[in-house]
């Protein structure tokens, strides 16, 4: 898992694909971390991506490195409502601290 995290961080931006009913939706993401041995990402519960992952948790993540290599991950997004998980992701992604707090009621981790 550490190797996957390192690779995606080297990419800088990776892309998360969800389903919006019968329409695929892809958007850039950057926040990642490992918590309890699992790869995590985060979003706000007021965004469409959150609703899409709740409705259909099957997602794919893709990223391309500067050397032209790429990765694609297929996963099931599992919401983790623990404050410890949210705090961990904020510590791993300090740029998000200007947008979210672990206890703000809108920050979510998967």
């Amino acid at each position: 898992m550490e190797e996957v995290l390192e690779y995606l961080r080297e990419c800088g931006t990776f892309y998360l694909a969800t389903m919006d009913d019968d329409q695929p939706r892809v958007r850039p993401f950057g926040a990642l971390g490992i918590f309890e041995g699992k790869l995590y990402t985060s979003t706000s519960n007021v965004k469409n991506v959150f609703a899409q992952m709740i409705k259909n948790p099957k997602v794919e993540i893709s990223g391309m490195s500067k050397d032209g290599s790429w990765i694609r991950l297929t996963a099931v997004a599992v919401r983790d409502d623990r404050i410890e998980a949210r705090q961990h992701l904020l510590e791993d992604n300090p740029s998000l601290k200007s947008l979210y707090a672990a206890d703000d009621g809108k920050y979510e981790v998967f």
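The chain has a mean pLDDT of 97. The chain has one domain: 2-109.
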